[in-house]
Automatic annotation (TrEMBL):
Keyword Cell wall biogenesis/degradation tagged: no
Known EC number: 2.6.1.76
UniProt organism field: Streptomyces asiaticus subsp. ignotus
InterPro entries xref list: Aminotrans_3 (IPR005814), Aminotrans_3_PPA_site (IPR049704), Dat (IPR004637), PyrdxlP-dep_Trfase (IPR015424), PyrdxlP-dep_Trfase_major (IPR015421), PyrdxlP-dep_Trfase_small (IPR015422)
Family annotation (Pfam families): Aminotran_3
Cofactor names: pyridoxal 5'-phosphate
Name assigned to this protein: Diaminobutyrate--2-oxoglutarate transaminase
Region annotation Disordered: where it falls in the sequence: 457-481
SUPFAM superfamilies listed in its UniProt record: PLP-dependent transferases
UniProt KW keywords: Aminotransferase, Pyridoxal phosphate, Transferase
Family according to the record: Belongs to the class-III pyridoxal-phosphate-dependent aminotransferase family.
Length: 481
């Protein structure tokens, strides 16, 4: 159907949604909670087939660092098409690939870039995780993997086994370790004490010959857990993990699929702590919104034979061109620093808003990776939410029904947000790094209004929510469509 034929009354959009429900897999996710049919997008604004406009704080699950249709990305794509360059080249060398690799290496932690190798993988982050696990197993001759509770590394078998929802140990060889989740500390102390206990637990387990950990080929972690609920790893704890793994010759794998390219306020999230991992897994934003995934690793690990890891679409020239343009634009325009400044402002306002609202258990994040964990204050003693200590607040259960209601209230107001966390009770914000000050205020206004509206709505905690009504989504000054 041509875009010009889409009506503004919503009838065509509803027809598309009905056909999707009839023909697509039951595994679809975003389409269930966000019944939007996008037809146009520019910057942070998405327009649906029914003519409604939304501010997009999902950004393709963080893949759109520069938002939709950024001019530098479009120009890079057009240049490849106009040159009639090949679009898929397997792992052959091309000028486009060479330029992308140059730009990528220019952004890496200096301690890694000087002696790095890069493997281009299949199109998704989960493919890069599989390659990283295969790499360290080949290099060390060991089979085990150290991973963390709450982690998410992808949906393929090996990546899923290392994610928090998979069973511990078993045939996958994965040993699960406690991640320092301050708000719901597994040791019920929180803060520096919780992080220290996590580090000690790791040391004791690895040094205990009867501890049950499969001899580890590597440790994989996210500097900020994204799907796990926007949980930043403390910088000191990350340095401890680096020391622990280095002392035992265990390669450290940093999964920067969602945290990379300026998202957290540093170009790579490991930069906050000064940690230099042995392996970095990169995807999402490095392709400028197109499918691209790579593994960057220390040259000493480069012992696998030709063909040990491959993939038909590892030579995506449009993605490499878009990715190089994105990396350069973020670097040259200091967008990581901008993300740190804007993110701090958003966190400050949201924390002020949360004061006295007991159903907001925690507000946390780093840069433009922000989460609000919603709880049920009626399920515990009065006064245990809000500004309570982490150990006491953990007694209150997460409230996924309320989070779903907030998501719908935000959609009604023209704001697209994501849910995450252990129980799906965390409102997640991943706006593009190009978000303007005006858009920042609009996001905060719509989010806080949606939060208050959800708690006032009878039955807000029900998972069976109606489709959203027409949202209030006026165009912002300066928006381009």
């Amino acid at each position: 159907m041509a875009l010009a034929a889409v009506s503004d009354d919503g009838g065509a959009a509803q027809g598309i949604l009905r056909r999707q429900a009839l023909r697509e897999s039951a595994a679809r996710t975003y389409a269930r909670a966000l019944p939007v049919v996008p037809v146009r997008a520019r910057g942070m604004t998405v327009e649906g087939a029914d003519g409604r406009r939304y501010l997009d704080c999902l950004s393709g699950a963080g893949a759109l660092a520069l938002g939709h249709h950024h001019p530098v990305v479009l120009d890079a794509i057009r240049a490849v098409l106009d040159a009639e360059a090949p679009l898929q080249v397997l792992d052959l060398a091309t000028p486009v690939k060479d330029a992308f690799t140059d730009e990528l290496f220019a952004t890496l932690p200096p301690g890694l870039a000087a002696r790095a190798r890069v493997q281009f993988c299949g199109p998704a982050g989960t493919d890069a995780v599989e390659a990283a696990l295969k790499l360290v197993r080949t290099a060390t001759g060991r089979d085990g993997v150290l991973a963390f509770s709450g982690a998410y590394h992808g949906m393929t078998a090996g990546a899923l086994a290392a994610s928090g929802g998979a069973p511990s140990s078993g045939p996958s060889g994965v040993t699960r370790l406690p991640f320092p989740y301050d708000y719901r500390c597994p040791f019920e102390v929180g803060g520096k004490h919780g992080a220290e206990l996590s580090a000690r637990w790791t040391e004791k387990l690895l040094d205990d010959p009867k501890g049950g950990a499969v001899d580890p080929a590597g440790m994989i972690l996210e500097p900020v857990q994204g799907e796990g609920g926007v949980i930043p790893a403390p910088d000191g704890w990350l340095r401890r993990m680096r020391d622990i793994t280095a002392a035992r010759s265990i390669p450290l794998i940093a999964d920067e699929v969602q945290t990379g390219v300026g998202r957290t306020g540093a170009f790579w999230a490991v930069g906050h702590s000064g940690v230099v991992p042995d392996v970095m897994v990169l995807s999402k934003a490095i392709g400028g919104g197109l499918p691209l995934a790579v593994v960057v690793y220390h040259e000493d690990l480069d012992v696998w034979p030709p063909g040990a890891h491959a993939g038909t679409f590892r030579g995506n020239q449009l993605a490499m061109a878009a990715g190089a343009a994105t990396l350069a634009h973020v670097r040259e325009n200091n967008l990581a620093e901008r993300a740190a400044t804007v993110g701090a402002r958003m966190l400050d306002r949201l924390r002020q808003f949360a004061t006295g609202r007991r159903w907001i258990g925690d507000v946390r994040g780093r840069g433009l990776m922000i989460g609000l964990e919603l709880v049920d204050p009626e399920a515990g003693p009065a006064g245990e939410a809000g500004n309570a200590t982490p150990a006491r607040a953990a007694a209150l259960p997460a409230d996924p029904g309320l989070a779903a209601a907030v998501q719908q209230e935000c959609l009604r107001r023209g704001l697209i947000v994501e849910l995450g966390g252990r129980h799906g009770a965390v409102i997640r914000l991943l706006p593009p790094l190009t978000i303007t000050d005006e858009q920042t205020e609009a996001v905060l206004d719509r989010l806080t209004d949606g939060l208050d509206a959800a708690i006032r709505t009878p039955g807000a905690r029900s998972r069976e929510l109606p489709l959203p009504a027409a949202p209030f989504a006026p165009p912002l000054a300066g928006d381009h469509r």
